[in-house]
Amino acid sequence: MSTMAYSQSVNYVSLNEVDPSIHKGHKSPPVIPTVSYDMQNLYVWSAYAIDMAQIVIRNDEGTVIYNVSTALPSSSYVMMLPQYVCENKYTIELIYGSHHWLGYF
Questions:
Q1: CATH number assigned to the domain comprising residue 99
Q2: Tens digit of pLDDT for each residue in 5-24?
């Protein structure tokens, strides 16, 4: 079991499926990844490993300021935030397979 020390209070980002109709006919709802951030890091947790996910952060003008494709472990993925990210409103997109999640922070 891993523990994570936070430098300051942690804020959670609510993720919403961009096109929820892709789950029509499924017996159970999809497992939604959890995203949170503090003043230094962004944390992504998933109940299962994701082989290839794209993480995109856009500023309030829609400009991409962070774009990475990476494997997400079943525990957590941590990325350092540039200092200016915490000063404005941003969107985060988490895309993998047929899933496209969107959240605001």
A1: 2.60.40.3080
A2: 444 576 778 887 776 565 55
